[in-house]
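Listing S7. Sequence submitted for prediction.
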Amino acid sequence: MSVQPEDRTTIDMFSTTRPGRPRSNPYDRTQQCRHNKRSQRLRDKHAGLHRLEVKLPGDVVAALDEAAEDLGISRAEVINQALAQWLHI
């Protein structure tokens, strides 16, 4: 029987015991990141959010960061509010 890296049911069957502090997560960092990203995408999908990638000049990003800091909200929320206002939503 072989073990897949993403196997969550038999993770302790084939692991070797090691001295020291037990690991809080049996998966390595790359697998943890993949699982977390997958979970985040599913949460966003269920919340009705869509992923959008945009390339902006550095001065625009700096202005966004400054506006976000002044308003006490995230950069994504600043962009969302600006686009909603611009599109009259």
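Caption to Listing S7: primary sequence and predicted structure tokens for the chain studied. The chain has a mean pLDDT of 86. The chain has three helices and no strands.
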